[in-house]
């Protein structure tokens, strides 16, 4: 169980809800899906669900060790692990090559938030890192897979934004800007590529029990800003609950949905 530094983290919201994952066997049969951030948290849960629903996953993460561990747990041939940094063009090219043919779907899940600074306290280094991974990485990988999807006349992209992509909160300036950028990228790409059979949607998580909203190492000043924020989060979802939202949009179940930004946050965004 994750423990916030002075903040409160409801310990077993997900368990208390009695929710159970219901996989749809065969939903991704014959599909190759690229999932970033696949070594942990939401990305790993998404990749795992796609595999259990028959898909072949190109699993991408900067953390080679944790990625290999995930790939080793999957049935033979269903996961191609590519240790890659989504901010580097050479790495992106390796990801596309590793797919070895058509890419039917892309889930841009990789992201960081290790700094909760307001604008005046945001260093250039933090800005470049957070915007680089959370926004430029999504741009570069999506740009790399779109030509193949256009050629095929079909494809589905799901970008993981955030509650902080919908409105301002205490997530830090660079993070909030990066996630608003992801929402803009989603809508623009959906508009431009929808007529060519490609759907581009976003999921905006609220609190998820992966560590991001409850970082273990925060300065006293940082925690003072975080505590009221943490106390507002109505529910803490599991990574598997987010994977349910992401795979819904990614799969043919989302057939009529393009350009949507789906809050998956227990209703936080309407409070
Ligand atoms: P996580 O830290 O468990 O997973 C993020 C993964 O991204 C890690 O495995 C990490 O190694 C990988 N990654 C980081 N930099 C990378 C890079 N340059 N190239 C490739 N991979 C890289 O966190 P999570 O909670 O599962 O977060 C997944 C996504 O969900 C992120 O985009 C995050 O912003 C978003 N999100 C999370 C929450 C939450 O409460 N956890 C809320 C809103 C949005």
Can you give a write-up of this model?
This is SDR family oxidoreductase. It comes from Agromyces soli. Keywords: Oxidoreductase. Belongs to the short-chain dehydrogenases/reductases (SDR) family. The protein has 271 residues and is of the alpha/beta class. The chain is 42% helix and 15% strand. The chain contains 8 helices and 9 strands. It has a 7-stranded parallel sheet, sandwiched between helices. Strand 4, helix 5 and strand 5 form a beta-alpha-beta unit. Helix 5 runs parallel beside helix 6. The two termini are 26 Å apart. The structure holds nicotinamide-adenine-dinucleotide.
The biggest beta sheet is recorded as: 7 strands, parallel
Helix percentage: 40-55%
Label the structural class: alpha/beta
Bound chemical compounds: nicotinamide-adenine-dinucleotide
Shape summary = globular
Low-confidence stretches: 1-9
Mean pLDDT: 92
- Radius of gyration, CA atoms, in whole angstroms: 18 Å
> Distance between the terminal alpha carbons, to the nearest Å?
26 Å
Count the E strands: 9
Organism: Agromyces soli
Family: Belongs to the short-chain dehydrogenases/reductases (SDR) family.
Protein name: SDR family oxidoreductase
Keywords: Oxidoreductase
